[in-house]
Amino acid sequence: MSRVGKKPVPVPSGVTATVAGQLVKVKGEKGELSFAVPDKVSVAMEDGAIKVDPRDQSKEARSLWGTSRAQVAILIEGVSKGFEKRLEINGVGYRAAMAGKVLKLSLGYSHDIDYEVPAGLTVTTPRPTEIVIAGIDKQKVGQAAAEIREFRGPEPYKGKGVKYANEFIFRKEGKKK
Description:
The protein has 2 domains: 3-80, Outer Surface Protein A, domain 3 (Alpha-Beta Complex); 83-164, Outer Surface Protein A, domain 3, CATH 3.90.930.12.
């Protein structure tokens, strides 16, 4: 039995959720999201909460049970609170700045990198060495953060590059004489 899947997802006040067949639509103060639940899992509204159950006891249905419940919980959290990822830039001359809907990154290459911000996300740079990505879709926020980090990932000797704010970079010792 799935420990995650057994729990119904409570719908907080200020959020409206509708279940139409296999489609779950959630609307809140930050926006609107929807998720198509796989056919091996049934979904229903019960007592102000969304209940997810497997249709049979096959391995695939049980696997999708907890995953579907977690996806529905993420939708509700996204439209009520939203999601945020913070990136830090380390290195001499490395910096970031917003110019309209484009994030301009100087990461030690011979050219600046222009990153087009995807629709539905807001990117801010409170400091030249900090990037904050926010939005209601957890997958889009994480994907944008990963794409920005990929331009110059942190290296293990001096720690230069773009890293997540809570990420620990394992440091290596340099060459010895």
